[in-house]
Amino acid sequence: MARRPRTLLVNPPLWNVYAPHLAVPLLTTVLRDRGWPVTAFDLSATHLRWMLSAKTVAGLADRYDRADDLGLDPEAVDEARLLLPSVRDGIEDAWVTVHDTASLHDHAAFAAATRTIGNALVCHSAAFAGFHCDLRSNRQYYSERSSASVLTASGDPDRNPYRWAFEELLPPRLADPSLGLVGISVSADTQLIPAMTVAALVREHRPDLRIVMGGNYITRVAGRWRTRHPFFDLVDDFVLYEGEDAIVALCENLFEGSTRPVPGRSTLAPDGQLSFAPARDVSLATLPAPDFDDYDLGSYLAPGPVLPVLASRSCAWDCAFCSIPFASNRYRHRDAATVAEEMLYLAQRHSTTSFMFVDEIMTQRTLREVSAELVRRDAGLHWYGETRFSAGLDDKLAAQLHASGCRRLDLGLESYNQRVLDLMRKGTKVEHVEANIEALLGAGVPVHLFCITGFPGETEEEARRTPEFVERVLRRSTEEFALPYSTSVNGPFILDLLSPVGLHPEQYGLTVLHPGPHEDLALSVDYLTDAGLAGAEAARLAAAADALPDTGRSAPLQHRGLVGESEEYAFLRCVHRTGVPPGRPTAHPAAFAPVRGTSLRLAEGVTWRVSADGGVGLYAAGADSILRLPRRWVRLVSELDTGWQFDNSDNTIVDVLCTLWTFGFLADRRKHAVPLAAGTDLRVRVPPGWRENVDLTTGRARLTSSVTGREVALNVHAFLLWLEHTADEPAAADSELVADMVRVELLQANRRIGPMASGDKTRTGRQVSA
User: Fold this and answer.
1) Domain for residue 585, yes or no?
2) What are φ and ψ of residue 250, in 5° steps?
3) Model confidence pLDDT, tens digit, residues 277-326
4) Are 8 and 179 in contact (CB under 8 A)?
5) Would you tell me how many other CB atoms lie within 10 Å of the CB of residue 208?
6) Residues 245 and 359 in one domain
7) Same-domain status, 133 and 260
8) Which domain holds residue 365?
């Protein structure tokens, strides 16, 4: 009997970088069970490790040298050149640190490692025109909403960062002469351009291979095709809906002459017409355990591994905003004993105790039965998943969940208004929300609350009520239940064309603004509404809803290259009881007060460059601060590099030196400081780089520093006080609040050195380094 051809299954970027995706391991185990040779390749994880390597980071300099030819942003390149040396020297250690469970306890070491990784992403972003890389939604020059744009991207290594990377990473995987089929799994729009880039390279290197593409996102996109689509230039077959039965049937069709239908197959008939076979439910009762053996489980960006498992498929509900029922088959659940056995098997095989349920929703029945099985077996595992608010989620069930190892539950709150929940067809009751949360927190299970702002018909008052409730929940979780691991996310309503709202917009008072043929792949669109919040207003309120503590006493560092903290980290922190990282480390509030004649110099690890416009950029690795100064300060920075004797006769120079000292650019910071005590004769001003976003209704402001990446929220009183310090002579103020603002670098302070020279006043406040 002839040897069967091998299948290469590929999971392209950008998917979850913190844990493996389940689709390819499930397809792998099904093929192996049926005797088909298969290799699983998590290109998303491989690509991440390649990006975050010293060799790749160092190679970015070659692209910066070609900045004009590649159309790169000069300012972004200047910033990246400042960061590159510290990233190159520190990225390998950073990778080791974030994979060490002990680093979850060492918040300073963990923060330093994630800063280095974030800066590596900034360096990659600068190397491609229109590219922004933050591990969640790598936006780039080409659009995944346009078929023409996707196909052009697949062949362009200059503006498609995936093509540039895959030309090195993919060919070795295609060298196996036994290969017959390449399968590419696409679950999200972030994977489409990388997936088609893989297909293009397979066509170039191995035109003899058959290419099939499937996954949730392909189901959404290809399900709308009625004629031949241009993607068939690169892909032979598309599989819609579930793929476990389809991949086996396809191999039998292609290589053994079988004529049985391939469920969900979309392909071209001999006459060039589109042919589609009906999809079919996969039996979950016979679904084998996923096969992760081909994966390097140490290549994900978290200690672990945290392995995905499923107890059910699809969703039993039909919320108006959601397209999950459209893109999946009917709801089914697995036997709880089988699920528990699978978790124990995977735990032993891969030396882990951490799992995440990837069910669209864990029903109350699933929660009750699976947790009971894990308790009965004394499994010693930890897990998290997603469920919904309901009457039966009481103290008894919550205690059983915790006993089974549940250390986080994600819940779709969406809105804390019954009228809005009813508009959403959510099927939940506000009266159950607080009781469920109380039961979970009381049992030691942190919660994560999903919220939506601006569902059609929602008023501004209703939209504001939800984050106010969430803020109370998070505060109680920490202060009353000693669970600082509860989190939330609030996003604006997005009109999904395949959701009930998208299919029947007139029923919700919406007018769809179709993007036109140039965005033929668009699944989300803009809209006009007859009542309630407009899209732009919903986006603004949602952005303001993720509350940060007033004056930033523990405000988290939102790094310029990273977006928040992953759910895997929040889960693992609870498992290991590490506490949560504090905000950006800062010293006690102090003022800059060097003595005349003192030698000042740049701190160790500070790099600086003169940019094309003649200004000077500085990066302080120790403080992770980036600062740009006008060209008139180039000489001062140059002299500080070797040592400069302080002369306090010029207030303008003192202002700049105070800024450098505040953000960690000067050596011996404590030596040049005096306590910020009442009665001290100080000049207090706003340092450069702060941008404010003000909610005009509440007066609350969200401030972001371009120097440090810090975000801080201020109430009305604090914001007005901060604004006063942008003036030449701020009024007398709340000294305690001023001190706290100095501590978090919202303000900078230095000891007065005497009367200012005429004309110097315009250089105070924000204009110190304008």
Assistant:
1) no
2) -65, -45
3) 999 999 999 999 999 999 999 999 988 899 999 999 999 898 999 988 77
4) yes
5) 9
6) no
7) yes
8) 304-548
Looking at residue 324, its pLDDT comes to 83
Q: 490 - beta bridge partners?
A: 451
How many domains is the chain built from? 3
Query: Would you say 448 and 407 are in contact if contact means Cβ atoms under 8 Å apart?
Result: no
Model-wide pTM > 0.70: yes
d(C-alpha 60, C-alpha 488), whole Å: 36
- Unique residue bearing structure tokens 């031949």: 228
Q: Are residues 259 and 310 in the same domain?
A: no
The β-bridge relationship of strands 447-453 and 265-268 is: unpaired
The whole-number pLDDT of residue 287 equals 93
Distances in Å between the alpha carbon of 28 and those of 73, 84, 294? Answer: 42, 39, 9
- What confidence score (pLDDT) does residue 752 get? 75
- DSSP string across 141-188: SS-TT-HHHHHHHTT-TTT-HHHHHHHHHSGGGG--TTEEEEEEE--S
Rounded to the nearest 5 percent, the helix, strand and coil shares of the chain are 40, 20, 40
Q: Are residues 506 and 387 in the same domain?
A: yes
Residues 527 and 605 in one domain: no
Do 165 and 70 lie in a common domain? yes
Cβ–Cβ under 8 Å, residues 624 and 119: yes
| Pairing status of strand 524-529 against strand 495-496 | antiparallel
Residue with tokens 């939940």: 428
d(CA 47, CA 197): 13
Q: For the chain, state the CA radius of gyration.
A: 28
pLDDT attached to residue 726: 77
Q: Is residue 247 part of a domain?
A: yes
The beta strands (E) that lie in 434-500 are given as 447-453, 487-492, 495-496
Which parts of the chain have pLDDT scores under 50?
547-558, 755-770
Dump pLDDT digits (tens) for 603-617: 999 999 998 889 999
Answer yes or no: do 346 and 224 share one domain: no
Within a domain: 315? yes
Contact in structure between 559 and 114 (CB atoms under 8 Å): yes
